Amino acid sequence: MKSETVEIRTTDGPANAYLARPDGGAHPGVLFISDAYGLRSTMSSMAGRAPVDALLGPSKGPRPASAFRAVLPLIQELTPARIIGDGGAYLEYLESLAAPGPVAVTGFCMGGRLAWRIAAAYPGRVAALAAFHTAGLVTDTPDSPHRSAADLGPVEAYFGFADQDQGMTPEQIATLEQALESAGVRYVAEIYEGAGHGYAVADSQAYDEAAAERQADELRALLARTLRQVRRPAGRHGDDVTPAKGDP
Question: Which end of the chain is more exposed for a tag (fewer CB within 10 A), N or C?
């Protein structure tokens, strides 16, 4: 696995990303979106290996609750329009490197909401959407993600919710499922019993090894189902930008 940190041009300026290129020929693309704490060693090890903790410093264990205050101003600046604009730039970069065909988008915590926004904004370019311990997919606001379920297009989705996550209650999950069913979206929504918000991320206080392994297995299975058809023979480079672990 070859990996490097790259810059992607967006309308607001350059953005850092971690690019991993699997060995052994061309591969379809996977866009892996981190949680609120961004690109760091925990995320890159989930995806492949490497980079940097620019904002919060290297992680030596679970993040303290106070760390969230450091990133909250940045989260608040992530409007749907900015997410969609940046998402388009990431997709364009990924598509320039990967095997031809649609890509997959996966996210953790708030990264799952970003993955949804990108998939809904660029239907047909995304074959698979996965979100793990993601809250806020159903809100009372006019731009709540679930209201755009019909925009997801021909995508297969997987949601791994945490049953200890108050940001995504059983009632909200039911509302999300109703929106997906009404829109005719193929999906699976599962609740990981005993898991909390952040269960898949090793430097989260809620990290749960068993739940994280289940998450990784479900993601690999989703990628195998949805991206197998776009695999190409050796001869072109297929790449993952902050990719999902494993080769679909």
Answer: N
